[in-house]
Amino acid sequence: MNWTTTFLTQPVSWVNPEMPDKPIGDYIGGLVQHSPLNNVAVWQIEDKHWQQFAITAVAENLRWIASWAEQADKQFIVNACFEKQGIYIVLRTVINATKPELPSQATVYPAANRSERHTQDMFGIHFIGHPDNRRWTRHQAWDKHQYPLRKDFPVQGEPPSITPPDTNYDFVKGYGAGVYEIPVGPVHAGIIEPGHFRFQAVGELILNLEERLGYVHKGIEKIAEGRTPDSLARLAGRISGDTTVSHCWAACMAMEQAAGVSVPNRALFIRGIVAERERIANHLGDMGAICNDVAFTFAQMQFTRLRELWLRTNATVFGHRLLMDVIVPAGVSRDVSELSCELLKQDIVMLKKELSEIMPSIDLNSSLEDRLYTAGYLSPEIAAAFGTVGYVGRASGQDFDVRRDAVYPPYNQVTVKVALEDQGDIASRFWVRYKEINASLKLIEQFINLLPKGDISMPWITPSTDSEGLGIVDGFRGEIISYVRFGDDNKIARFYPRDPSIVNWPALEKLVLGNIVPDFPVCNKSLNGSYSGNDL
Amino acid sequence: MLNILKKIVTTGIVTEKCKAPKDAELEALGIEIKRHIDKKFSGSIAIRQVDAGSCNGCELEIHALNNPFYDIERFGIHFVASPRHADVLLVTGPVSRHMQTALLRTYDATPNPKWVVAVGDCAVCGGEFGQSYACCGAVSNVIPVDVTIAGCPPTPLALMKGLLGLLV
What we know:
The complex is a heterodimer.
Chain A lengths: L1 H8 L21 E4 L6 E4 L5 H10 L3 E10 L2 E10 L2 E10 L4 E3 L8 H12 L2 E3 L50 E6 L11 E7 L2 E8 L7 H5 L4 H8 L7 H16 L5 H28 L4 H22 L8 E2 L2 E2 L5 H26 L2 H7 L7 H6 L4 H5 L7 H4 L20 H25 L17 E8 L2 E9 L5 E7 L2 H11 L8 H8 L3 H5 L1
Parallel strand pairs in A: 2-5, 6-7
Antiparallel strand pairs in A: 1-2, 3-4, 4-5, 8-9, 9-10, 11-12, 13-14, 14-15
Helix pairs in contact in A: 5-6, 6-7, 7-8, 7-14, 7-16, 8-9, 9-14
Chain B lengths: L1 H10 L12 H18 L3 E7 L5 H8 L12 E3 L8 E5 L7 H10 L5 E5 L1 H5 L21 E3 L6 H12 L1
Parallel strand pairs in B: 1-2, 1-3, 3-4, 4-5
Helix pairs in contact in B: 2-6
């Protein structure tokens, strides 16, 4: 299709922030609108071109990022977001609610598979030609013909007094001599989140793995509706507890765009500091846990010790160990004093010294080498096909980082060095994290040195009805997209957060193939997907 | 190997004791827990943690109980892999409806006598998520709860304090 190709191959200048805004309600088929979605172009096409667009897009190496829908009276607005070389576009179409159907993009982009099934379960939109028509987010808490995100579905729903187990999900079966099945979860043996894994194995070898998630579906998109900006920020901070800062930042960024609020410089730098501190805390925890899963407890003890020290500084300086609710709409809730800056700097020196003592022992350890190298291999091709992000993508040669490639303040004031590995195994995902810690330490140092004086928040401006925003930030797991549309009276009409886990989880099904069942925990930990962020 | 030994020796024991004044409370609490456990559980209490819809924030802090600063195992409190080995269920989250049956079955699988500790604001009262088509709200809406530990998430110190409440 010529029109698609023309559009996709147009130079960067088509993303022109000077273009006049048009009201979002004013749908123009096949035209680019500059919407209040920051510098992201919104392109409205006819529904029949939906799949064709994907076919062209994949040929042009566009990365599929997210899709979400919303209801507007008797119509559904369906969105899909793509990226190439740091430029984002939102593709949009409108379909009739009486017979809601749309050609599937999952036939072209495997990454779109679960997202379209989520939309199917939550809105009752049928994706024509979808390769997998099983339900995804829906278990047994609501009926097949009920759709929680439709406007006529009450927040309370009509759940049974005891929701039955989801026993009749049609898992892929394995047949043949010696093939057996291992069901795991939802309640796991460790202190981790719930989800179900279904293995087919021969001896110790994994033939196939199927993930069945959705156990921690909390209706986040539904209960977001009608919230005030402050309340939405709190909720966004609890999408995934380990990514509280970045999710909150993405949601606030979206709301601030929609309202046209500019955040004071000082607040932006403080946001940068807490986001990088969050990244480091999580990487420390993950690196220890990866070593622990191959029984190298020395590293586990050292890393949990460092993580605890790190979290205690968070509590001293920002009032919360995990940094929850530090970011608020139009600013931050905590200022940092001179004394706090000193503390943060001392923390950097401490961590650098400690790591310089610990890492050589890990690097030289032959048992770690034996267990982590070549295990859980994710090829660059598969990593790209699923659009994996963060350390999962970066360990398999996917050189993308929002902080560098679609830069947002305060990262435009510094140089972001993106860690990269290309071996694609667990060791790569381990060392990418270590490189990211070092890069983040440098960033925090620069943010402290550049910290401008001034206010830490601005007064909130009530956005006009239907104004929308798209927040894009890089959390510790990678790119987070947060879509917000306001309704009347400063209330949220639609909120969709896409956690990086949503695109990273399917890669786990691929990278465990050919590994032994006892290596599954360490494979899983090396990916460390968020169940809560995935299930919403 | 020498590097590892050197690091272990130079790190020393970081587990916090009474003489560290700012965290004195920790040790006091720990000793208190130990005394009660000795009486009721012969020096050992086995905990099965169940995430029933948490955002994972509570799990991060429960994990911290096992780091060398808190080292909760020195008081005979340890985490087990199966509810069949457990005396206590430590439940987090606003009980997502998709986890309701799993939680009930885990509760049934835990032998008597058993105690349930609801950890975090979500588990205590529904928290940020409350009750909806997707969540049952507080853990007590699903299974009997003996002790609640509030906080979003509760700090490791608050968790130790809460466990004490179970045992007095």
